[in-house]
Amino acid sequence: MGDQQDEGGLTMNNLLSEVQGALDKFKLEDDGPPGDYYSPYANLEKAAVLQEARCFHDPTAVRENPRKCCTVIAQLLHLTNTGQYLNSAEATEVFFGVTKLFMSDDASLRR
């Protein structure tokens, strides 16, 4: 029961090795504490992310590349979670840009 496999199916061991391989891609190389992983958003600059967030105002860009918009939203969330604050003008621009995403045909942008 624990390690049965259909022809071409995944076993629990195969699945665990795949997940461990994915984790190892992001593992830090230096002498940090065990369990430290590299964040793909570690070196974000607030100005660059805010510049990319302007794509929310362009309906063509949103329609053609919704994945990029999702990435920019994740970057904005990372910035706020790491303690970087948006001033009122920046927050207002991001707010109105994100509200335009609710009108998108892509379900991942409306969630």
Question: Can you describe what's shown?
Answer:
There is one protein chain. It is built from six helices and no strands. By secondary structure, it is mostly helical. Helix 2 packs antiparallel against helix 4. The N terminus is likely disordered.
Present the secondary structure layout.
Blueprint (H helix, E strand, L loop, with lengths): L11 H14 L20 H7 L6 H6 L1 H16 L6 H14 L5 H4 L1
Helix pairs in contact: 2-4
Radius of gyration: 19 Å
Share of residues in helices = 40-55%
Structural class: mainly alpha
Spans where pLDDT lies below 50 across 5 or more residues: 1-7
Average pLDDT across residues?
Answer: 81
Q: β content, as a range?
A: under 5%
Which descriptor suits the 3D outline? flat
The ordered string of helix (H) and strand (E) elements is HHHHHH
Treating each run of at least 4 consecutive H or I residues as one helix, how many helices?
6
Main beta-sheet strand count, sense and barrel state? none
- The count of β-strands is 0
Q: What is the end-to-end distance?
A: 38 Å
Question: What's this model, at a glance?
Answer:
With 111 residues, this protein is mostly helical.
Output the keywords.
111 residues, mainly alpha, 0% strand, 6 helices
